[in-house]
Amino acid sequence: MALPALPKVSHDTASAPPRIVVLGSLNMDLVLRVPHAPEAGETLQGHSIHTVPGGKGGNQAVSCARQGAAVSLLGRVGADDYGQALRAALTRDGIDHGGVQTDAQEPTGVALVMVDDAAQNRIVVIAGANARVEVDAHDPELAQRLQHAAFLVAQFETPLAQVVTAAALAHRIGCKVMLNPSPAQALPAQLWPLLDTLVVNEVEARLLSGRVADTPAEAAKAACALRARGVARVVVTLGAGGAVAADTQGCRHHPALAVTAVDTTAAGDTFLGALAVTLADGQSFDAAVRHGIRAAALCVTQVGAQPSIPDRDAVLRSALPPDWIPL
């Protein structure tokens, strides 16, 4: 069946907050604070345990909302207490979750997040309802959401086929697609030409480009290889090493801010949300990367996923990162 004709729209960010649609996972995180990761057979006395709203889709939606965007989230939760708690958290951030489905068979996704005293995390995810997200390319409500959005933001914690369906619809309508291919996996050929902005870490950059991306110079080469696939803008995030941005103007290294990290959970999601909203606001690519770095630096100084994501005012009050360096 042919898709209905849909007009392309312009996004007037001067009169209203930018609109962003996020397709992604919703998890309840069980966060364990531990002195170190236990070895095989070791029983470890932990510091604490907390339940915290998370999931890459939920985190990125919250980051976008706290940076001032009007956000619609597409996802799936179970008909259980965790699902209700996640919806309540989205409501508190003003996020439209009318596109979040409720699964009567599968439970809400859960992530076990172990954070050690060095602020490094180890995460095990049980997908649950996330694995059954469905995107209907003929849904008029979805088309309406995308018509008025500056970006569709997606990751890979929901089925890949559904990400492709949503990206194809967004691209056809004129809504730009920003992809964070995490967990890392190869992209199907039909997805590449649909992408406007690709945000990857060192592992994802290496998998997709076939090049090592552990230093700014290496990340720049990987980013150029990814841009050659037709992507307009690529960001390779390097954690404490900052980020490399690549577009038609070439490659630049944006250094990170020096902070004392206590928990790196959701740092990448925080960066991506801040990046998306700043671009949707009409600011330059470099300004958007710098804003993302500032937001992520604040995130890692706090514990937990969504509780650690800063709002726009906090980011604007924070220190500026060093100037970017051409590569």
Automatic annotation (TrEMBL):
<dbReference type="InterPro" id="IPR011611">
    <property type="entry name" value="PfkB_dom"/>
</dbReference>
<dbReference type="Pfam" id="PF00294">
    <property type="entry name" value="PfkB"/>
</dbReference>
<protein>
    <recommendedName>
        <fullName>Ribokinase</fullName>
        <ecNumber>2.7.1.15</ecNumber>
    </recommendedName>
</protein>
<dbReference type="GO" id="GO:0019303">
    <property type="term" value="P:D-ribose catabolic process"/>
</dbReference>
<comment type="similarity">
    <text>Belongs to the carbohydrate kinase PfkB family. Ribokinase subfamily.</text>
</comment>
<dbReference type="InterPro" id="IPR002139">
    <property type="entry name" value="Ribo/fructo_kinase"/>
</dbReference>
<dbReference type="GO" id="GO:0005829">
    <property type="term" value="C:cytosol"/>
</dbReference>
<keyword id="KW-0963">Cytoplasm</keyword>
<feature type="active site" description="Proton acceptor">
    <location>
        <position position="269"/>
    </location>
</feature>
<keyword id="KW-0547">Nucleotide-binding</keyword>
<dbReference type="InterPro" id="IPR002173">
    <property type="entry name" value="Carboh/pur_kinase_PfkB_CS"/>
</dbReference>
<dbReference type="GO" id="GO:0004747">
    <property type="term" value="F:ribokinase activity"/>
</dbReference>
<keyword id="KW-0460">Magnesium</keyword>
<feature type="binding site">
    <location>
        <position position="265"/>
    </location>
    <ligand>
        <name>K(+)</name>
    </ligand>
</feature>
<keyword id="KW-0067">ATP-binding</keyword>
<feature type="binding site">
    <location>
        <position position="201"/>
    </location>
    <ligand>
        <name>ATP</name>
    </ligand>
</feature>
<dbReference type="GO" id="GO:0005524">
    <property type="term" value="F:ATP binding"/>
</dbReference>
<feature type="binding site">
    <location>
        <position position="263"/>
    </location>
    <ligand>
        <name>K(+)</name>
    </ligand>
</feature>
<feature type="binding site">
    <location>
        <position position="304"/>
    </location>
    <ligand>
        <name>K(+)</name>
    </ligand>
</feature>
<feature type="binding site">
    <location>
        <position position="308"/>
    </location>
    <ligand>
        <name>K(+)</name>
    </ligand>
</feature>
<keyword id="KW-0119">Carbohydrate metabolism</keyword>
<keyword id="KW-0808">Transferase</keyword>
<feature type="binding site">
    <location>
        <begin position="55"/>
        <end position="59"/>
    </location>
    <ligand>
        <name>substrate</name>
    </ligand>
</feature>
<feature type="binding site">
    <location>
        <position position="269"/>
    </location>
    <ligand>
        <name>substrate</name>
    </ligand>
</feature>
<comment type="function">
    <text>Catalyzes the phosphorylation of ribose at O-5 in a reaction requiring ATP and magnesium. The resulting D-ribose-5-phosphate can then be used either for sythesis of nucleotides, histidine, and tryptophan, or as a component of the pentose phosphate pathway.</text>
</comment>
<keyword id="KW-0479">Metal-binding</keyword>
<feature type="binding site">
    <location>
        <begin position="268"/>
        <end position="269"/>
    </location>
    <ligand>
        <name>ATP</name>
    </ligand>
</feature>
<keyword id="KW-0630">Potassium</keyword>
<feature type="binding site">
    <location>
        <begin position="27"/>
        <end position="29"/>
    </location>
    <ligand>
        <name>substrate</name>
    </ligand>
</feature>
<feature type="binding site">
    <location>
        <begin position="237"/>
        <end position="242"/>
    </location>
    <ligand>
        <name>ATP</name>
    </ligand>
</feature>
<comment type="subunit">
    <text>Homodimer.</text>
</comment>
<keyword id="KW-0418">Kinase</keyword>
<comment type="pathway">
    <text>Carbohydrate metabolism; D-ribose degradation; D-ribose 5-phosphate from beta-D-ribopyranose: step 2/2.</text>
</comment>
<dbReference type="GO" id="GO:0046872">
    <property type="term" value="F:metal ion binding"/>
</dbReference>
<feature type="binding site">
    <location>
        <position position="157"/>
    </location>
    <ligand>
        <name>substrate</name>
    </ligand>
</feature>
<dbReference type="InterPro" id="IPR011877">
    <property type="entry name" value="Ribokinase"/>
</dbReference>
<feature type="domain" description="Carbohydrate kinase PfkB">
    <location>
        <begin position="19"/>
        <end position="311"/>
    </location>
</feature>
<comment type="similarity">
    <text>Belongs to the carbohydrate kinase pfkB family.</text>
</comment>
<feature type="binding site">
    <location>
        <position position="299"/>
    </location>
    <ligand>
        <name>K(+)</name>
    </ligand>
</feature>
<feature type="binding site">
    <location>
        <position position="302"/>
    </location>
    <ligand>
        <name>K(+)</name>
    </ligand>
</feature>
<dbReference type="InterPro" id="IPR029056">
    <property type="entry name" value="Ribokinase-like"/>
</dbReference>
